[in-house]
Amino acid sequence: MLDRDYFEVAEPVIAEITSDLTFTGGEIVHAKGAFAEHAPPPLPEPPDWSPVPAFGAPGAPAHG
Asked: Do the Cβ atoms of 33 and 44 come closer than 8 Å?
């Protein structure tokens, strides 16, 4: 579910539209705004041996 109706906003604003609710395989995988109470629990921190904190992961913010 998007935060705004892209048929109702001005064309330059379309790029600013974000998802408030996302399902994958019938399960809620992202929820914010009015749906925040349905958000799944945050993912656990990676283990000490994981290379993700040092090198990052696709789609993850860079650490440094």
From this structure: no
> pLDDT by residue (tens digit) across 14-29?
999 999 999 999 999 9
Q: Is 51 left (phi over 0), alpha (psi -120 to 50) or beta?
A: alpha
Check: CB of residue 29 under 8 Å from CB of residue 22: yes
Output the pTM of the full model. Answer: 0.61
CB 6 within 8 A of CB 18: no
Q: What string of DSSP letters covers the chain?
A: -BSS-TTTS-GGGGGG--BSEEEETTEEEEE-GGGGGGPPPPPPPPPTT-SHHHH--TTSPP--
